[in-house]
Amino acid sequence: MKNPQRSPTNPGSVRSRFTQVFLQSLLRIRKHSPASSSSSSSLGEFLKRCHRVKVAAYVSMARAAGTRRAWSRAMLWRVRHDAHRHRLLQGRCSRSSSRERSPGKKKRRTKKKKKRRDDQEHGFGNAEKLQKLVPGGEAMDFSCLLDETAHYIKCLVTQVKVMRSIADFYSL
Amino acid sequence: MEGSSTPLTQNSSTFAIGIHPNDQLPSCFLVAGWEDALDRGDPFESALSSMVSSPVAPPLAAGEGDDAVMIRELIGRLGSICDSGQTSPGSYNNSAANTSCYNTPLNSPPKLSLSMADQHVRGGGGGGGFPAPGCHFPGHPPFVPVMADPGFAHRAARFSSFGARNVNVANLNSGLGLNASEFPGKQGNMLDSGRFCRVPSSRSLKANDGSQICVQGNDRIFLQSGISASTPENGEMGDSREGSSISDQVAHGEMHARGQIDVNSRKRKSIPKGKARESVASPQSAKDSEVATENEEQMTKKIKPAEADGNEKDTVNGDQKQSKESSKPPEPPKDYIHVRARRGQATDSHSLAERVRREKISQKMKALQDLVPGCNKVTGKAMMLDEIINYVQSLQRQVEFLSMKMATLNPRMDFNLEAFLSKDILHPRGPLPDSLYPVDSSGSMSYGYEPRQGLMPMLSVVSSNMDTQFPADLLNSGIHRNASLNLPVMDNYGEAPAPGQALWEDDLQSVVQMGLGQNESHRIEQGTRIYEFDADRAFIYHN
């Protein structure tokens, strides 16, 4: 049985692309991780690695999905932006970092207010929630949001499947 | 025909357009409006149309079978008006080129038509809110060119028979006979607003709808009468050239819900020759009831001259129109999105757009319903959105857990496994052989069962998704090797930070509940065995 229930976005191609990119990223992470694998796994390191793996998973998924989709573009942008901001925060002193954070928070608050105002009909609060969940969903109207959600769900399902299989094999 | 002219003079204000084009200036028609209109040159058609529009209604209403008679009466009326009350065909012939069509019909009793015209004009003027008809026309230069347009009547006929058929003036002209027959009986039915925007091509049966559409449920008596009056007249006056162009124009103008507002604005500004009619016509078909009031007022004004024009010319092309109408199927305008207003629903352009949007959203929700498991039972958009949100959250959480798992497993990765994995993942195999489940995994289970509890549901899912084949010989060899495999695995697990592991198990179980669903829970037991199988296979392959 070769997965006859393929979703219309041809998850086969998405899946293959995702696995390739993701495995490459995993390898890279493994190389960057400390040499002594099993012994020196402190919590911090572990969490860092978790985060890296997660980011790698999302980035590879976004790349596999292509830039035609708004959510993939938004996700890639967000990752780059967060990484950049992270570097800035690390590189600068705490004061500057705090300054950076506060305007960002303010922006987020205004964004939230705008989101509430711009809620479309059917499912006002739910649309807002969905916008938060789907990357790049804030700047979309309801119908576009539904489209992006559909594609995002398909890609997420593929991602979960692949990661599970990888973890399965690796965890032996 | 002075007797007829007197009533005419009384109502001459309505005919202020100036019927008689060039040749004569009948004294009986000396009214301010008349003269001005006459000075403009070629007000004949407009005057005729105005006259014809209203007067036609009653005679049309009288008898459906008397189409031809009514048409002829109208034409006669027009002729009489034009020719200073004279019914001599010669006068008509002397007038503009469009008199040719008047030859026969215009010879019909003009006096009657005139008197009828008077009544109708009054009624029409009152009903249509025709402001200061006498002074109106002179004050509306744009009317003149419009009225002078030979296709004017066609356009008027167009939107009068708008709902009835595909707007094709030429067809209208040809089908004038049908029009006349159709409309008289429809005047009473013109208030049905719940008809389709699109003008069906079939003339006869759908004239009702068309006329109703024109009215859009609004009580525009004048418009109705004007429409009904105009159609037979316009039908007769068909100028084939104009008709075809107008039909195209009107077809375009017909049905766009969005274009209505533009159309209305267009109407107000000026009355370009062809466009004015279209704009007038389009509101009829469109669902903008609010704008329709304004439109109708303007339309009435325009209809009159158009009808006058149409009446002048239309006799000859009646047959042509019929044939054309029957042959041509309705062509939906291609510029606009077609929206069909259902019965009883608002025909506002905004509401139409809203409806389109709502339908699109409902389609997308249905597509999402297929994606999200367990959404079939849920009905309603809010509930579905909740389900979708939950599903997306669960998927994201699964990704997170899997990434954590991989973070722990990362050190153990090697290239061989990677290649193997990619091969497995990319080429899913056949269904899981359930026959292999009964493999005795008690020994292996005793080793690493606990740490694997959280993983087992996931693994079971993975294995169910991943088509793996387990050759029977692997069972025995695998079991023996499980001990060696399990210990390092356990060690790995043991080395994992306690909080992480605890997190794993808790989260994984929650994941199991959410993401796996009921179908997967029964596989937990199998998952252990499958787990062993996978371990064995990986071990065998890569060692």
From TrEMBL, chain A:
Look up the signal peptide feature and give its range.
none
Provide the alphabetized UniProt keywords: Nucleus, Transcription, Transcription regulation
Q: Where is this region: Disordered?
A: 88-130
Q: Where in the cell is it found?
A: Nucleus
Q: Where is the composition biased (Basic residues)?
A: 104-116
Major subcellular site: nucleus
Q: Which domain of life is it from?
A: Eukaryota
The UniProt record lists the IBH1-like N-terminal domain at: 15-81
User: PANTHER family from the xrefs?
Assistant: TRANSCRIPTION FACTOR IBH1 (PTHR33124:SF40), TRANSCRIPTION FACTOR IBH1-LIKE 1 (PTHR33124)
Name of the protein: Transcription factor IBH1-like isoform X2
Taxonomic lineage per UniProt? Eukaryota, Viridiplantae, Streptophyta, Embryophyta, Tracheophyta
UniProtKB/TrEMBL annotation, chain B:
**Source species:** Rhodamnia argentea
**Subcellular location field:** Nucleus
**One Pfam family it belongs to:** HLH
Q: Which gene encodes it?
A: LOC115757201
**What GO terms are given for molecular function?**
DNA binding; DNA-binding transcription factor activity; protein dimerization activity
Keywords of this protein's UniProt record, alphabetized? DNA-binding, Nucleus, Transcription, Transcription regulation
What's this protein's name? Answer: Transcription factor bHLH77-like isoform X1
From the broadest rank down, the organism's phylogenetic lineage runs: Eukaryota, Viridiplantae, Streptophyta, Embryophyta, Tracheophyta
Annotated GO CC locations: nucleus
Comp. bias (Basic and acidic residues): 298-338
Renumbered to this chain, region (Disordered) spans: 255-355
User: Residue limits of the BHLH domain?
Assistant: 345-395
Q: Does the keyword Nucleus apply?
A: yes
Its predominant location is nucleus
